[in-house]
Amino acid sequence: MPRYRRVFMLAVLLGLLSGCAVAPEEQVLQGVSNARDAFQAKPENPNEMVGQVDLFVPNDYVIEETADEFNRLITNGKNSFALVINPNEKATSTFFYDLQKVDSDQQWLVDETFQQNGRFGFTTVKEVAENQLELVVSAGGVSLTTTTNENELPKNMDWMMKTVRSIAKNE
After folding, report:
1. Is residue 95 part of a domain?
2. How far apart are CA 73 and CA 61, in angstroms?
3. How far is Cα 32 from Cα 110, in angstroms, rounded to an integer?
4. 71 falls within a domain
5. If pLDDT is split at 50, 70 and 90, which confidence band does 68 have?
6. What is the CATH number of the domain that holds 79?
7. Number of domains composing the chain
8. Residue 151 falls within a domain, yes or no?
9. Which range of residues forms the domain containing residue 140?
10. DSSP annotation string for 31-68
């Protein structure tokens, strides 16, 4: 095949592939939709235990042991997620959301709250570095936090909300 033809074919292929890429705004919107759907859905069946608390964690994720049964690290490869369970908070609690709002000057990429049947939940996203976002997902007195990128937002918002919602004290 002549060289110019290969270059042309490569250019067309790259053009098609770049057109298939999902825009960052679409990733954020899909993530919020995933979190809302997971919040409103029936909680996942627990498959792990942290102290005296049953919860759902996706198959490839590991709950790391810590000295405190209410604070755990969930890992998946090189990704870490901080799980905080506040046993004094009910499903209606806005405690973790209020903590996010202490700095009134903070600029949020995402600040969405959810309410259903008296339960309260939210997801917030803020930029912490170039292509690095802090994601917080919470339902009642349970919170999960990670640092991620835009491409991972939809997946992380989904499983993280499913996990915080799976804890029975949230019902």
Report:
1. yes
2. 10
3. 8
4. yes
5. confident
6. 3.40.1000
7. 1
8. yes
9. 23-170
10. HHHHHHHHHHSPPPPP-EEETTEEE---TT-EEEP-S-
